[in-house]
Task: structure prediction
Amino acid sequence: MVSTRSDLLLLRWYVEMGADEAIGWHARDRLAVDAVSPNRPEPFRGPAAATPLPGTVHAGASSLAELEAAVRAFEGCALKRTATNTVFADGVAGAPLMIIGEAPGSDEDRIGRPFVGRSGQLLDRMLETIGFSRKTNAYITNILFWRPPGNRKPTGDEIAACLPFVWQHVALAKPRIVLLSGGTAVSALLERREGIMRLRGRWFDLKVPGLDTPIPALATYHPSFLLRTPARKSEAWRDLVALENHFHKLG
Ligand code: URA
Result:
């Protein structure tokens, strides 16, 4: 319960530092030397220390609906504990363009759909300029299905827990082209060590387990990076034009 102005200021400071999730009902002083008590609660094991939890090992979905149900039932990613919603996908299933971002942010977590906040609105406007939209011909998802608390970078364990689903997602959605939006999607799916600044604007053959032919994938900046660094928008614009041309070539 917030009772004083200093409590309020402290809360505001927590939110500014990115701690915007309540993990428990009661405040605990984690710096206090613990008196040994039989009722001492279990030490907090937060998602930062996440290793995949024992969860269902998923055998393989035969449709996007089945895959979504499997993701929703999955308990193997610790982020699920702190998230409000599972964020699976948005747009047209089976669309020619599939966009893969990083992870839900606070708006996406609240609403349960990917890319609905500020960066999603920018993404929509960018796609519109080349004739794509999630209402007609684009399908959007993320590498992670749950929001990392405070929008921190996902850990390798969290990515590894979700990745088998992401591969199945691409195999079932069968897009003609994949747009990898940001460094997390690029490094998770292409296993490249170089950063996004080096890889953006480049095409890769995405070899998807279960598909006979690779899918062309274009690496580009994440819209939230563009919001923070508008000077890079011209490069993102070049990527969009390359994407449009590639579609024309495919016929
Ligand atoms: N950033 C992402 O990578 N994905 C979202 O869904 C929202 C913000």
In short: The first strand starts at residue 90 and ends at 91.
